[in-house]
């Protein structure tokens, strides 16, 4: 089944909510980067959060989420946009830690608890918007929540979860983001918070066969839900041989000549999707001429 995200309004518009099934999307990232279970969960949770944050943008706008903690995972970088596209990587894809005390994947152990959580939004304006907060949890969901509260002044509850199978493949991945709009009553907040506390992780609900719509209905504890949009989400990288060629040209003619003389070609690997792009000596000769033309 295709992954998708739903957007909804509840309680007369005082509560905005998103839920996403990103199972195939995170599974593709796992295959492309050969992530082991703890890395899979850390990267997957960041991708799920970035998808929901991206869903708040308009079509062509895009954002980058960077999680830079002091744990063995290193940096996690995820790009997403208003059209449900997401791509990302984790510096160290091969982390497999013992389960934590709660019997869950130890994402905090991989990410670390010191460092920064940054969101950069490209809204088509001259300067991108950038917000940065310290990492407060390392479990990712709480870090999205803290970022939204502090940097965007939007009280939210964010849940992101990834269920990894024993062979490291992704069983399910998904999440929810519930945002309180100004004027929401304490009663509504209490009702939703109580429901959140008694609800299982989204990845388990997805594993039981629940849909994002059903998950939101349950989390929001009301029938007063207006589903606004259902948007497909997918792993998508826009890298290409042409784009990397432009980067090679900026290295300059001398550097390109060295690639021809020493390596008789070049290979570029996209960090986001792992695709490889090969450049023959003839390709490089063309790029060298372009570099000379730009000099
Ligand atoms: Zn790529």
UniProtKB/TrEMBL annotation:
Q: Does the keyword Disulfide bond apply?
A: yes
Query: Matching Pfam families, A to Z?
Result: HSP33
Q: For this UniProt record, give its keywords in alphabetical order, as a comma-separated list.
A: Chaperone, Cytoplasm, Disulfide bond, Redox-active center, Zinc
Q: Where in the cell is it found?
A: Cytoplasm
Per the UniProt record, which residue ranges are transmembrane? Answer: none
Positions of disulphide bridges: 270-273
Asked whether the UniProt record includes Transferase among its keywords, one would answer no
**PTM comment for this protein?**
Under oxidizing conditions two disulfide bonds are formed involving the reactive cysteines. Under reducing conditions zinc is bound to the reactive cysteines and the protein is inactive.
Say what the protein does: Redox regulated molecular chaperone. Protects both thermally unfolding and oxidatively damaged proteins from irreversible aggregation. Plays an important role in the bacterial defense system toward oxidative stress.
**Family, per entry:** Belongs to the HSP33 family.
PANTHER family linked: 33 KDA CHAPERONIN
Q: What is this protein called?
A: 33 kDa chaperonin
Q: Which organism is it from?
A: Enterococcus alishanensis
Organism lineage: Bacteria, Bacillati, Bacillota, Bacilli, Lactobacillales
